[in-house]
């Protein structure tokens, strides 16, 4: 398959929870600051601040806009609250972005057309036994059987890979976890990434998606990363990928605005209880 000339790459920016800095608050819109200041846990606030600032910076570079002027709409399709998937208005063209974080790692993918990025940590604390409610909720029966055939020590990594694939596809379909993930069937962890079956309402959306494991993502050990995105041409060729240093981008932006109050607080007052 050949990528048509002029097809822009999907850029994936990588950062760390520790990249959050007070100066990044200047990039966020008032609803985003309100959400940030409601988080109770400092780590959650840091992830949100770094992720949302990186999203604005990455999109701003592609759109030729200052990051604070990127017109993001984060309205939830279900309730209208400001915690939905960030979207750009149609007038800016087919640009899309996807944000994911797990543990201390943060990723932002930016490209043309539908896309979804997901990072999942290998969590040894998960109950991945035959009687686990988690296995039944997350996996289809055929996926659960493949997972449970593995020795216990191998299950967290395999589950993370399958889960990252599922959520990447659901994000690219713009439904996220509003659909039961067990209804979307992907290949087992030891096989190349692909969708085996989708519920009827998602089959058309899934048909033009390419699903990839990002084996070389700079997350370090203990993470699985998957990207789902629209094909770049009529023969189904995937667009090229480019890995970018999000930590450096955040550091430069933070130095530009050093005098803002610490993230997770407003005017020095304690943040209110966390809202997910």
TrEMBL record:
Stretches the record annotates as Disordered: 229-276
Keyword check for DNA repair: no
Low complexity: bias regions: 248-258
Keywords: Transferase
Annotated ranges, domain 4'-phosphopantetheinyl transferase: 115-188
GO BP of this protein: lysine biosynthetic process via aminoadipic acid
InterPro entries assigned to the protein according to its UniProt record, in alphabetical order: 4-PPantetheinyl_Trfase_dom (IPR008278), 4-PPantetheinyl_Trfase_dom_sf (IPR037143), P-Pant_transferase_sf (IPR050559)
One annotated GO molecular function: holo-[acyl-carrier-protein] synthase activity
Gene Ontology CC terms, in alphabetical order: cytosol
PANTHER family with a match to the protein in the record: L-AMINOADIPATE-SEMIALDEHYDE DEHYDROGENASE-PHOSPHOPANTETHEINYL TRANSFERASE, PHOSPHOPANTETHEINE TRANSFERASE
Family: Belongs to the P-Pant transferase superfamily. Gsp/Sfp/HetI/AcpT family.
Protein name: 4'-phosphopantetheinyl transferase
């Amino acid at each position: 398959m050949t990528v048509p000339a002029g097809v822009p790459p999907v850029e994936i920016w990588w950062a760390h929870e520790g990249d959050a800095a007070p100066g990044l608050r200047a990039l966020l819109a008032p609803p985003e600051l309100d959400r940030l200041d409601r988080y109770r846990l400092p780590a959650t606030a840091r992830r949100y601040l770094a992720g949302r600032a990186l999203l604005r910076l990455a999109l701003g570079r592609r759109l030729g806009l200052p990051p604070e002027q990127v017109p993001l709409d984060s309205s939830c399709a279900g309730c209208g609250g400001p915690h939905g998937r960030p979207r750009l208005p149609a007038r800016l063209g087919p640009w899309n972005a996807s944000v994911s974080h797990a543990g201390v790692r943060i990723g932002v993918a930016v490209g043309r057309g539908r896309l979804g990025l997901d990072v999942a940590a290998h969590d040894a604390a998960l109950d991945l036994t035959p009687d686990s409610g988690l296995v039944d909720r997350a996996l289809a029966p055929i996926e659960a059987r493949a997972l449970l055939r593995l020795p216990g020590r191998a299950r967290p990594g395999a589950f993370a890979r399958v889960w990252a694939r599922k959520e990447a596809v659901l994000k690219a379909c713009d439904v996220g976890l509003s659909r039961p993930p067990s209804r979307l069937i992907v290949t087992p962890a030891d096989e190349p990434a692909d969708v085996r079956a989708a519920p009827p309402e998602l089959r058309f959306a899934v048909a033009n998606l390419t699903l990839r494991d990002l084996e070389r993502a700079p997350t370090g050990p203990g993470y699985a990363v998957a990207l789902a995105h629209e094909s770049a041409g009529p023969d189904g060729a995937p667009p090229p990928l480019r890995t970018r240093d999000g930590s450096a981008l955040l550091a430069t932006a933070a130095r530009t605005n050093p005098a803002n109050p610490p993230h997770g607080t407003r005017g020095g007052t304690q943040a209110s209880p966390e809202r997910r």
